[in-house]
């Protein structure tokens, strides 16, 4: 099998695990994420608008004391930009149906909450295959310190995510059960 085929099979399996975990979600799934973000109070944060069966990071984003942005896809092969968000912001459908603020300033995050399909204890994530977060993290890390936090259900862990040279590792992984620090 090619790496593309291996990743496609891993994505299919990961979607199933995430869907099952989503069915068991609770209102307090964000508690560890809120605790981690306390160490980054005031820093520009980027989160995401949860879609389908993604774990919901909105309570942690709403509680963050500092600018908060959500991703805007500018086009295939490009890094993400982040438009400022707040609870109650007027939202419109962006690429792939993800909601984005209709208007607002751009935010350059120092901390990113990264959605994913699967993760491993090395700190690698399996995304949707567009490479948007890998390009974004590479660019932001080239400018200075950035903390990438994968946020997922614990059931999304896999033994080893198939990776390639362009895949950017996560600094932390937060689940509804706790915090993992890859390589530590």
From TrEMBL:
Cofactor dependency: Mg(2+)
Keywords: ATP-binding, Ligase, Magnesium, Metal-binding, Nucleotide-binding
InterPro entries, A to Z: FTHF_cligase (IPR002698), FTHF_cligase-like_sf (IPR024185), NagB/RpiA_transferase-like (IPR037171)
Molecular-function GO terms, alphabetical: 5-formyltetrahydrofolate cyclo-ligase activity
UniProt EC number: 6.3.3.2
UniProt keyword Magnesium, yes or no: yes
Gene3D superfamilies according to UniProt: NagB/RpiA/CoA transferase-like
Keyword Metal-binding: yes
Reaction catalysis annotation: (6S)-5-formyl-5,6,7,8-tetrahydrofolate + ATP = (6R)-5,10-methenyltetrahydrofolate + ADP + phosphate
Family per similarity comment: Belongs to the 5-formyltetrahydrofolate cyclo-ligase family.
UniProt protein name: 5-formyltetrahydrofolate cyclo-ligase
Organism: Albidovulum sediminis
């Amino acid at each position: 099998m090619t790496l593309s085929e291996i990743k496609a099979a891993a994505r299919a399996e990961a979607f199933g695990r995430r869907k099952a975990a989503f069915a068991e979600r609770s209102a307090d799934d964000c508690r560890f994420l809120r605790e981690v973000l306390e160490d980054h109070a005031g820093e520009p944060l980027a989160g995401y608008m949860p879609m389908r069966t993604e774990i919901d990071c909105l309570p942690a984003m709403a509680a963050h004391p500092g600018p908060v942005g959500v991703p805007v896809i500018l086009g295939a092969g490009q890094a993400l930009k982040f438009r400022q968000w707040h609870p109650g912001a007027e939202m419109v459908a962006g690429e792939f149906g993800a909601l984005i603020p209709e208007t607002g300033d751009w935010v350059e995050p120092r901390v990113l909450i990264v959605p994913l399909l699967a993760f491993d204890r090395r700190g690698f994530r399996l995304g949707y295959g567009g490479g948007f977060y890998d390009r974004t993290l590479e660019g932001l890390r080239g400018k200075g310190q950035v903390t990438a936090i994968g946020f997922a259900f614990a059931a999304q862990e896999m033994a080893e995510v198939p990776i390639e040279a362009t895949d950017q590792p996560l600094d932390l992984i937060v689940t509804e059960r706790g915090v993992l620090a890859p390589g530590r």
